[in-house]
């Protein structure tokens, strides 16, 4: 198929620069409403039935699939959170964030003129300055995991100071973790106060609140925690650290997106959503995009309202795009570090 035809088919791809949505209005939060929190109900069997159909009722093929996969790239927080991270490793990741797809693939798809790059790069605090320098001039923000990530059990003042230090180092986004015990014991006031303090410490940086859903025991707990964190001013709610036994799964995503919808209907404020951990294949990425489109609408397919926490996902998407062009699957080593 000619490149011009491909370009016409790829109408789902955004043409606007991806800068992480920092110009968008933020969620100011609301006073804690315990009646609202206690009123959160989840029908587990209905949620699981709906979640099971997410990848079977809808499908996208050919040029439309390529467009959705390119869209997915622009929604990624390209992430490295390993104990063996080095400055060199992070600089390579930032280079990949700037140019996530090989030029010959973009040219073959007829989209080489579009600003295809990831939404952010996510690192530990110690490597924020390295990432900021490597991304200078790109408008790609650096996201720092903070507040004693991943367990969130370090002293409170230390967690707050870690946020401030990352913002001072240049992080435009902060991914904080909550104290899971507040959820498990139903201490919603303590959770609200904690997240509110973290939001204040973030200052101008956008705050993504990690619930660590795999450790919250029930879908109802997840729904209630989502509401409290949004009331406290979270700009995003995020499923997982990626370090739990269970991370981003579709039933959890369904509960959290419906809480986002309920919060928006009551307050008029839009809060973003970030599934993270275990999303490794292009097929999974499309299922999450379908969830967002069906539950929250097309507006939530933009980086200011939706992100993937991803490390290995980009490699599979790039392989799928090459397969779309050539009919063959390439080896991983043909696609630089993701």
List keywords for this structure.
338 residues, alpha/beta, TIM Barrel, eight-stranded parallel sheet, 14 helices, 45% helix, disordered N terminus
How many strands in all?
8
Rough shape? globular
The number of helical runs is: 14
What is the total number of structural domains?
1
Which spans of ≥5 residues are poorly predicted at pLDDT below 50?
A: 1-19
Structural class by secondary-structure content: alpha/beta
Largest sheet: 8 strands, parallel
The first-to-last residue Cα distance is: 28 Å
Q: Which CATH architecture? A: Alpha-Beta Barrel
Structure description:
The chain is globular. It has a single domain, classed as Aldolase class I (TIM Barrel, Alpha-Beta Barrel), CATH 3.20.20. The longest helix has 18 residues. The chain has 338 residues and is an alpha/beta fold. Strands 7-6-5-4-3-2-1-8 form an 8-stranded parallel beta sheet, covered by helices on one side. Helix 8 runs parallel beside helix 10, helix 10 crosses helix 11 and helix 11 runs parallel beside helix 12. It contains 14 helices and 8 strands.
Brief summary:
Helices cover 45% and strands 9% of the residues.
